[in-house]
Amino acid sequence: MVNAIKGLYISCDVPMAQFIINMNAALPQSQKFIIQVLDNTHLFVRSDVAGMIRSAIAEFREANTYEKPA
Questions:
Q1: What's the CA gap between 22 and 1, in Å, rounded?
Q2: pLDDT score for 1
Q3: What is the pLDDT of residue 17?
Q4: 7 and 47 in contact (C-beta within 8 Å)?
Q5: What's the average model confidence in pLDDT over 6-16?
Q6: How far apart are CA 52 and CA 19, in angstroms?
Q7: Cβ neighbours of residue 39 under 8 Å, at least 6 residues apart?
Q8: Distance from chain centroid for Cα 46
Q9: Are 34 and 44 in contact (CB under 8 A)?
Q10: Which residues of the chain form beta strands (DSSP E)?
């Protein structure tokens, strides 16, 4: 019998994939969440980290949003 790995398939652009890969690389080995990097724009990650990834992306976008000076 084959053990099924539960995960989440992520499809994104290259910069966002690199952001997620760098997030994963910054964690200790026991907390790494990427199961497989499929190619430059597709990742397979542990399903329990979806919220953490979304939060980190939201924070990144908020920090890097241009606001026109008043």
A1: 34
A2: 59
A3: 97
A4: yes
A5: 93
A6: 13
A7: none
A8: 10
A9: yes
A10: 7-11, 34-39, 42-46
- pLDDT band of 42, cuts 50, 70, 90: very high
- CA neighbor of 33 nearest in space, from 16, 15, 8, 54: 8
Residue with tokens 């099924």: 4
Q: At 66, give phi and psi (nearest 5°).
A: -80, 130
Q: Which amino acid, one-letter code, is at 14?
A: V
Considering the chain, what percentage of its residues have pLDDT values greater than 90?
A: 77
Q: Which helix (H) or strand (E) holds 59?
A: helix 50-63
Q: What's the predicted TM-score (pTM) here?
A: 0.82
Per-domain residue ranges of the chain: 29-69
